[in-house]
Specification:
By secondary structure, this protein is α/β, with parallel strands linked by helices. The protein folds into 2 domains: 147 residues, Rossmann fold (3-Layer(aba) Sandwich); 95 residues, no CATH class. The protein is 44% helix and 11% strand. Strands 2-1-3-4-5-6 form a 6-stranded parallel sheet. The longest helix has 31 residues. The chain is globular and about 55 Å long. The two termini are 24 Å apart.
């Protein structure tokens, strides 16, 4: 049995499904998943709360949060450094900071394509927040990000099944730029792949638009215009991602990769064929 623990601090687009992608139809045997969450908050006090999760003995832990360099996620890593731990975040994007994570023994999957939301009270309410995350999830799921992460977690779970543990586990160290993500999309049609890659580049751009609004701009018109612009880009990216999927559906070339009961990855392309 492989025990996989997820610690969710704050929220990324990927946070919505990250603990579900290893067992998508709740039929996989040999793994157990548990989640410790701190809601939208991600401060040092929230990190301290996650220590109670150690009562459940995970074989490896995934900590997902925005900005892994922030005080809360940093404090959480300090608490969990005795466990094999994979950081999933939208940053750090600088190579030296990622190398520091690796030197400290952490795995990481950094997702610059998981967009920063326009988190300003002047613009964001619960409905806008949910709508933005739905658009983000459309891009992350259809353009290769979900499959990339699923495959990397499966590799670690396979090592545990093979008898490895602790520091012997080989953890991923991935900076998931758009070009890397789209290669996991399984696209047969080059125009579909181009649309998906465009959607990923747009998602990456969202953070560049929303960052000044969240942390620098003060004038209400500038704040609202910038955040609204970022959210419009995200909505357009979701449309492109959907169009890419529709091209593949029209050609009956949608690549699917379900888990067998024993965790083996099966594949199929044609709608009416059985996964093999």
């Amino acid at each position: 049995m492989v025990n996989i623990g997820f610690i969710k601090m704050g929220n990324l687009g990927m946070s919505q499904v990250i603990n579900l992608i290893q067992d998508e139809i709740a039929a996989r045997e040999g793994i157990t998943v548990r989640v410790c969450g701190t809601g939208a908050k991600m401060g040092p006090d929230d990190a301290a709360y996650t220590e109670s999760f150690k009562q459940w003995d995970a074989d490896f832990v995934i900590i997902i949060s925005p900005n892994a360099a922030a005080p809360g996620p940093t404090a959480a890593r300090e608490l969990w450094k005795d466990k094999p731990c994979i950081v999933v975040s939208d940053g750090p994007t600088k190579k030296d900071a990622r190398q520091a994570l690796e030197d400290e023994g952490f795995g990481y999957i950094i997702l610059p394509v998981d967009p920063l939301i326009g988190a300003k009270r002047e613009f964001l309410d619960p409905v806008e927040m949910a709508s933005f995350n739905a658009d983000a999830m459309k891009v992350l799921s259809l353009c290769g990000v979900v499959r990339l992460i699923q495959e990397e977690f499966d590799k670690v779970a396979d090592q545990v099944n093979a008898g490895k543990s602790g520091k012997d586990l080989e953890l991923p160290h991935i900076f998931a730029k758009p070009e890397k993500c789209v290669e996991h999309g399984g696209f047969a049609n080059p125009y579909a792949k181009a649309k998906a890659l465009a959607a990923l580049h747009m998602a990456e751009k969202v953070a560049q638009v929303n960052f000044p609004a969240c942390f620098m701009l003060k004038d209400i018109e500038q704040v609202c215009l910038a955040t609204a612009t970022g959210h419009e880009i995200m909505g357009a990216a979701a449309v492109l991602a959907t169009q890419a999927r529709e091209i593949e559906k029209s050609n009956d070339t949608v690549f699917r990769q379900p888990h067998a009961k024993d965790g083996t990855l099966l594949t199929k392309t044609k709608l009416y064929e059985k996964p093999q």
